[in-house]
Amino acid sequence: MKPLRICMISPIHLSESITAARAARLRTLGGSDLDVDLVRLPPEAPPGLDRPEDVEAAATHIAAVAAGLDPARYDVVMPDCVLDPGVEALGEGEIPVLGLLRLIAGGLYGIGGPFSAVTRNETIADELAVRLRGYGLADGFRGTDILNLGIEKVVHEEEWTSALDRIVRERSRAGVAIVLNGCSAVATGPSSWSDSWIVDPTTYAFDLIRARLRNGLQPVG
To answer: By its UniProt entry, which InterPro entries does this protein fall under (predicted)?
Structure first.
């Protein structure tokens, strides 16, 4: 079986070194089944999603980058962001589009238990809530814990993972065993709490794509 060729597009402008590190992780997660490229946005794109205007700008830039991709090179295009910025506009292009959150939403809903999320700031939390409602997950969603961390913590993950562990512990005690990590760029390992599941959106999305491919299904449609 040929690997599925995926082009992921960053939602912000990244440095070359960060782009290379992120691309390497995506290739590792993709394994032999998924051939994953990462395209970064131009310098005029926002450096972080800190305001609602940044999310809107990210969607516009992602759509512009996707419009310039070669349909013969890729099977799927996907924003590298749990907010699925620009997926509506991308749906009008020649290359089929997948949204990270849209892809994993069905899996989260199908589990049947309540879940919460963790985001870097309030802007991302608000947009995530809007997306989840749009994907029909309002009933199971128990809100978002906001870390109030700068964009640099996405690269230096120690503080993020420490805060995430504390939140998972508190949510577990409150009866919420599933926590969605609301940043696809932060690598998260297994929860130290045996009854909890920290959902890494990229890892979970790739697992779902593989499952469809191995059952002879297309990842889109």
So the answer is: Asp/Glu/hydantoin_racemase, Iso_Racemase_Enz_sf
Instruction: Supply the CATH number for residue 16's domain.
Output: 3.40.50.1860
**Using one digit for the tens of pLDDT, what is the confidence trace for 126-136?**
999 999 999 88
pLDDT tens column, 177-188 = 899 998 877 777
pLDDT less than 70: residues of the chain: 110, 112, 152-157, 189-194, 217, 220-221
Does 84 lie in the same domain as 110?
no
Enter the pTM of the model. 0.90
State how far the Cα of 200 lies from the Cα of 97, in Å rounded to an integer: 20
Instruction: Indicate if 112 and 93 belong to the same structural domain.
Output: no
Task: Look up the CATH number of the domain holding residue 188.
Answer: 3.40.50
DSSP reduced 3-state for 161: helix
Say if residue 179 is exposed, middle or buried (CB neighbours under 10 Å; 0-12, 13-18, 19+): buried
Domain that holds residue 176: 101-201
Question: What is the Cα–Cα distance from 187 to 208, expressed in whole angstroms?
Answer: 18
Domain total of the chain: 2
The CA-atom distances, in angstroms, between 183 and each of 26, 101, 155, 221 are 14, 11, 11, 25
Contact criterion met (CB below 8 Å) for 142 and 172:
no
Tell me what pLDDT residue 44 has.
95
Rg of the chain on CA atoms, in Å: 17
For position 40, what pLDDT does the model report? 93
Strands (E), the chain: 4-9, 34-39, 76-79, 115-119, 141-146, 178-181, 197-199
Dihedral sign, Cα of residue 56, residue 155, residue 25, residue 108: negative
